[in-house]
């Protein structure tokens, strides 16, 4: 056996320094092309500092209020949020040009989360207007778009990313109980779930559309969305409640997620030497050396050189990919781990330690943050998701997180404690009991 590997460590001080730079100064010029996603970047920064337990120290009371007011400045008069201030016409906004400044599903999702993480009570949020708008964004087949056009047409994609954010907005504002609230019709939950089921692939993963290749990002978004509408598969042995549910073959989906583990961490690893003389665990990490469900061996683990013992050193570092035959990528450690956590299968399906070592040894940057792949500089997107994974794995020094919302449990608890939200859920529960239905009432 080789020498023991040095302990992998989260460079806590450098991580805080990285995220405080993002909070207090301008982002580097490479982010210029992402200016229209400023609300998203803001959430990654404040939520990362919250995960690190540094948000209260990083923000003065005045700064916190300033950020809250900035989010509200992006709220539209008719409800919903823009994803950045750049489309705001100010006093020149009118009925003719407001079409160029529409409410935006990702903008609204991240705005609400920013307010929650910053400790706002969401009392200034136009909650009723958002729920009305959300209902209009659902297409007849169940999917959700991104914005509404001038004639009420739905613009944007129709994949599970938008379904995830739309159902999360609904969950934030009214919980997962179904039926109209204060005269506002609910979304068509059955249609949405059927839309998700239609995108399930033959191998258990979920794609952006029927008959397309399964992808970890779409799978994660779909499973989180099913969680937000309380339509995940029922526990084994529990009788059906008659409701349409997603993830029609749970075992196959779990196997597909577990198979996203890979020992192919760098571009050089993808050189295919399958079955040649160097194809052993002692010599290489190959593209075919993917890691299966815990307990199974990879191809390279079953080969030896002569009488040398089998050395499973390809399990020292394990990354995750988003599709078959791809190299590891920091973000997919989240897109794979999050659905497993939501399904309560994370500890029983994968071993966290090799993935933790991959993140800390291979993509954690010396200046803080995480890169997309080995040797990449850090970026806000991959740095946040890498931190989320470590928090989900219980990394010492990090706060507990909610895998579906990408915020700390502390922030989620704050949201669930808000009086207006408790009242909305109580009203829905009372209506459900009064009508004698099990949360399945729909209104058109």
Automatic annotation (TrEMBL):
<dbReference type="GO" id="GO:0005953">
    <property type="term" value="C:CAAX-protein geranylgeranyltransferase complex"/>
</dbReference>
<dbReference type="GO" id="GO:0004662">
    <property type="term" value="F:CAAX-protein geranylgeranyltransferase activity"/>
</dbReference>
<dbReference type="InterPro" id="IPR008930">
    <property type="entry name" value="Terpenoid_cyclase/PrenylTrfase"/>
</dbReference>
<dbReference type="Pfam" id="PF00432">
    <property type="entry name" value="Prenyltrans"/>
</dbReference>
<keyword id="KW-0808">Transferase</keyword>
<dbReference type="GO" id="GO:0046872">
    <property type="term" value="F:metal ion binding"/>
</dbReference>
<keyword id="KW-0637">Prenyltransferase</keyword>
<keyword id="KW-0677">Repeat</keyword>
<comment type="similarity">
    <text>Belongs to the protein prenyltransferase subunit beta family.</text>
</comment>
<protein>
    <recommendedName>
        <fullName>Prenyltransferase alpha-alpha toroid domain-containing protein</fullName>
    </recommendedName>
</protein>
<keyword id="KW-0479">Metal-binding</keyword>
<dbReference type="InterPro" id="IPR001330">
    <property type="entry name" value="Prenyltrans"/>
</dbReference>
<dbReference type="InterPro" id="IPR045089">
    <property type="entry name" value="PGGT1B-like"/>
</dbReference>
<feature type="domain" description="Prenyltransferase alpha-alpha toroid">
    <location>
        <begin position="10"/>
        <end position="407"/>
    </location>
</feature>
<keyword id="KW-0862">Zinc</keyword>
């Amino acid at each position: 056996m080789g020498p023991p590997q040095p302990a992998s460590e989260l460079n806590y001080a450098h991580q805080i320094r990285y995220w405080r730079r993002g909070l207090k100064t301008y982002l580097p010029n490479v982010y210029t092309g992402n200016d229209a996603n400023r609300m998203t970047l803001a959430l990654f920064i404040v939520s990362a500092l919250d995960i690190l337990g540094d948000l209260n120290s990083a923000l003065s009371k005045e700064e916190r209020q300033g950020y809250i007011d900035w989010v509200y400045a992006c709220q539209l008069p008719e409800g919903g949020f823009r994803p950045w201030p750049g489309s705001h016409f100010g006093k020149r906004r009118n009925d003719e040009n407001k079409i160029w400044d529409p409410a935006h599903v990702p903008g609204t999702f991240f705005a609400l989360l920013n307010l929650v993480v910053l400790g706002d009570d969401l009392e200034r949020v136009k909650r009723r207007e958002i729920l009305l708008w959300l209902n209009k964004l659902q297409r007849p087949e169940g999917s959700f778009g991104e914005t509404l056009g001038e004639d009420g047409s739905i613009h944007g994609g129709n994949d599970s990313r938008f379904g995830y954010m739309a159902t999360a907005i609904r969950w934030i504002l009214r919980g997962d109980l179904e039926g109209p609230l204060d005269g506002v019709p609910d979304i068509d939950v059955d249609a949405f779930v059927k839309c998700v089921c239609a995108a399930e692939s033959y191998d258990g993963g979920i794609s952006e559309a029927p008959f397309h290749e399964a992808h970890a990002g779409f799978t994660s978004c779909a499973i989180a969305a099913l969680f937000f509408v309380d339509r995940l598969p029922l526990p084994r042995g529990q009788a059906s409640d008659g409701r349409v549910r997603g993830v029609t073959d749970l075992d196959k989906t779990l196997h597909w997620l577990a198979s996203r583990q890979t020992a192919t961490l760098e571009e050089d690893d993808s050189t295919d030497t399958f079955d040649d003389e160097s194809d052993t665990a002692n010599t290489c990490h190959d593209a075919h050396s993917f890691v299966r469900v815990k307990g199974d061996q990879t191809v390279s683990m079953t080969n030896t050189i002569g009488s040398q013992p089998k050395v499973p050193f390809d399990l020292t570092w394990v990354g995750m990919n988003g599709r078959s035959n791809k190299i590891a990528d920091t973000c997919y450690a989240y897109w794979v781990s999050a659905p497993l956590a939501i399904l309560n299968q994370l500890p029983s399906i994968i071993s966290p330690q090799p993935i933790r070592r991959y993140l800390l040894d291979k993509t954690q940057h010396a200046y803080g943050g995480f890169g997309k792949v080995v040797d990449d500089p850090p970026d806000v997107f991959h740095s946040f998701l890498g931190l989320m994974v470590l928090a989900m794995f219980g990394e010492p020094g990090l706060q507990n997180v909610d895998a579906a919302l990408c915020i700390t449990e502390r922030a989620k608890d704050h949201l669930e404690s808000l009086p207006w939200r408790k009242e909305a859920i109580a009203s829905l529960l009372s209506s459900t009991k009064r009508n004698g239905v099990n949360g399945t009432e729909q209104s058109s």
